[in-house]
Design goal:
It contains 19 helices and 25 strands. The protein is of the alpha/beta class. The strands form 5 sheets. An 11-stranded mixed beta sheet has the order 10-9-8-11-7-12-13-14-15-16-17, with helices on both faces. A 6-stranded mixed beta sheet has the order 18-19-23-20-21-22, with helices on both faces. It has a 4-stranded parallel beta sheet with strand order 3-4-5-6, covered by helices on one side. The radius of gyration is 24 Å and the shape is globular. The relative contact order is 0.08.
Length: 510
């Protein structure tokens, strides 16, 4: 329960010309909702204009369930005459107001909030940040595509499929973890008030839809920028401006930046940093701060030689793929800015656990045939995954992948071209077809890889590929990684690449 005046933004408060401002400010709010089905007596309901529906359609339903305060982007006169016992609060941007209200209603006790944005690498980077913090005895979680992951690596799914969750869900998570000593394998302990450190994926959708507004970011980090999500953003410029907003608008003057010097977009972020007098540190081969000198691929790890602000460092990274070197250094820079000593960061990097579904070795048959799963679902990510396996000198690389339905159509033939160029054998199958015809999706991919083998149904394709394996081969199952579902039409069916692989391998090994 909070007073209305304590949770609304100053802009909204100043615009509310109530004749009884004190009564207005002291009105009690018992819950905050943007879903009318979850409204209870005394709730504040925010009517959000969605991509497929308008929250104003559900105002009457919210009121019937007990909502006493309605935040909306419209003239309130059409409602006040009919519902004179309900307070209607007009705002310029309901999404931003929801983020502000959520941050105030579900207050958190936070030490550091690190946001990671970029086309690829967000999930790995936030997980590595969490692992570094946890090894250094910080109360820490990561939030993103992999769900909520606590200090012990226990994972819980978010309520939906969003990378950056809805502001209400996000701030409830932060409130729960920061105000109590809580992990996903035990119960609340109200006696622990240790501050929470959180690493969160900042997706372009989440930034554009104001889901991450009003968070006290200590560090904003950038991984890379390549084609994705044009079904939503329409153009690459729009896609970039969504990413850029994290640095130009959401970051405060106290925030620090971390950027990938090998990506040309980093200079634009550096320009923002200079204009705002914000510290910005670089990592990568071209970096002046954290510079990669050499990477040597081993069977079980990668040997990294780098310069950290002029100091030579070498360590064994127990993750596959050069892209994980970049993600690890992004995480290292972010944790360094959060106050973790370099020696302790290096120690944590050498003891990293595998990242769920990120170039993860799932099976090794007869010590000769290696099978990996990876979440790669963009041309650049697929290329990096295949080339990372190539560094370990397999006899052949067999790649199995598909593309999601109702998503960026333009990247389908591009991904086909990438797969054919860098793999020895390509098997094109289904991903999450959603409302599209899977055959039509595969056809668009095949345009880019005419030599690809088309196999409908993902399980069939994975089993077919395993049967093809010869000694010394590596098999990459790309696109779904950690996911344990497949969306066909509007229905979600249980499906796990890992489970299919392990079940098939157990039969092959008998």
């Amino acid at each position: 329960m909070k007073k209305l005046g304590d949770i609304l933004s100053n802009e909204t408060l100043s615009k509310h010309n109530s004749s009884n401002n004190e009564k207005f400010a002291n009105a009690l709010v018992y819950d905050v909702c943007d879903d009318s089905r979850k409204v209870s007596e005394g709730s504040l309901f925010v009517a959000i204009g969605g991509n497929s529906t308008d929250g104003k359609k559900y105002i009457e339903d919210a009121i019937s369930k007990g909502a006493k305060y309605i935040v909306l982007e419209t003239d309130n006169h059409q409602y006040t005459e009919k519902y004179n016992d309900v307070l209607f609060i007009p705002v310029d941007n309901a999404r931003h107001e929801l983020a502000h209200i959520s941050s105030r209603f579900f207050e958190s006790n936070l030490e550091d909030v690190i946001a990671v944005t970029g086309t690829n690498g967000k999930s790995s980077t936030v997980d590595i940040i969490r692992q570094i913090w946890a090894r250094n005895n910080r109360k820490a979680i990561s939030v993103g595509t992999l769900g909520i992951v606590d200090k012990d690596g226990i994972r819980k799914k978010l309520s939906g499929t969003l990378t950056s969750p809805n502001p209400i869900e996000l701030h409830k998570i932060l409130h729960s973890f920061s105000n109590y000593s809580y992990d996903l394998n035990s119960s609340y302990d109200k006696n622990n008030s240790e501050k929470l450190s959180v690493a969160i994926e900042a997706s372009s959708h989440g930034i554009d839809q104001h889901r991450l507004d009003c968070l006290p970011f200590s560090v904003c980090a950038f991984t890379n920028f390549t084609q994705d999500h044009l079904d939503y953003h329409k153009t690459m410029d729009n896609y970039w401006h969504a990413k850029e907003r994290l640095f130009s608008e959401l970051a405060s003057s106290n925030t620090k930046f971390v950027v990938n010097a090998d990506d040309t977009k980093s200079e634009k972020i550096a320009e923002i940093a200079r204009a705002r007098s914000i510290r910005c540190i670089e990592y990568g081969y071209e970096a002046k701060d954290i510079k990669i000198i050499d990477v040597i691929a081993k069977q079980s790890h990668q040997k990294i030689h780098a310069s950290f602000f002029g100091k030579d460092i070498s360590f064994a990274l127990p993750l596959f793929g050069k892209f994980q070197v970049f993600n690890s250094l992004c995480a290292a820079a972010s944790c360094y800015l959060s106050g973790i000593q370099l020696e302790k960061i290096i120690d944590a990097l050498e003891h990293l656990n595998p990242i769920n579904g990120r170039l993860e070795q799932v099976a090794l048959i007869n010590n000769e045939k290696r099978i990996y799963v990876d979440y790669a679902h963009t041309p650049d990510a697929l290329k990096n995954a295949i080339l990372s396996l190539r560094e370990h000198n397999p006899k052949r690389i067999i790649t199995v992948f598909g593309c999601g339905g109702e998503r960026d159509h333009q990247k389908r033939p591009i991904m086909g071209k990438v797969a054919q160029k860098f793999s020895d054998i390509v098997i094109v199958t289904d991903d999450n077809p959603r409302g599209e015809n899977p055959e039509e999706i595969r056809k668009m991919i095949i345009e880019g890889c005419p030599n690809g083998i088309e196999v409908d149904k993902r399980q069939n394709a994975i089993e077919y590929a395993i049967d093809m394996l010869q000694d010394g081969d590596s098999l990459l199952i790309a696109g779904k990684g950690h996911e344990d579902y497949q969306q066909i039409g509007k229905e979600f069916f249980h499906f796990s690449d890992k489970e299919v692989i392990l079940n098939k391998v157990s039969k092959v090994s008998k």
